[in-house]
Amino acid sequence: MDRYVDEGAGIFLRPMTHDDTELIIRWRNSEAVRRNFIYQKPFTREGHENWIRTMIDTKKAVQLMICEIASGRAVGSVYIRDIDREHNKAEYGIFIGEAEARGRGIGTGAAKLMLRYCFQEEKLHRVYLRALAGNDRAVRSYEKAGFVKEACLKDDVFLNGKYCDIIWMAAIAPAGECRRR
Question: What CATH number has the domain spanning 5-127?
């Protein structure tokens, strides 16, 4: 993981551990993070431990912590889930948990690092994401990181008493970086 450093954004990625559980629960339950997720139910210790057991430990997902270089403090997390080895693709997700870390380019830097990890380490061909259509700040960050809008699904999810559009975006591995496993 030593290679996943972005000096410009002042961050590095490290593997998530069980010790990060309380931070992740606090962040995912905060209104600022929760409102931008499709899954908005309260996050629990049991749910996170089940995620580790059924997704991380089985290699169906990879979750990394976004940490500040200066302090080593974790400020958020990136992950890929539903890793599909037959088609070499996975779904990307991110959240910046610490309020003062938002709006500083950390999300864009973390997305770039995670894409590099996905293409070089996991040998994925395609990394995709879903974003709520009203989350313009996130969509701009994803575009800066290399994701491209592919579709807008009208009224795809029902949240807070109304149907919401979902934007699908993806990044494709640079030529020569993805090898079939």
Answer: 3.40.630.30
Provide the b/e sequence for 82-106 (b: ≥16 CB within 10 Å): ebeeeebbbbbbbbbbbeebbeeeb
Given 3-state DSSP classes, what are the helix, strand and coil percentages for the chain, each rounded to the nearest 5?
30, 35, 35
State the pTM of this model: 0.92
Residue extents of the structural domains in the chain: 5-127
| 46-47-49-50 Cα dihedral, nearest 10 degrees | 110
Q: What is the pLDDT along the chain (181 residues), one digit of tens a residue?
A: 668 999 999 999 999 999 999 999 999 998 888 888 878 788 899 999 999 999 999 999 999 999 999 999 999 999 999 999 999 999 999 999 999 999 999 999 999 999 999 999 999 999 999 999 989 999 999 999 999 999 999 999 999 899 999 999 999 999 766 555 5
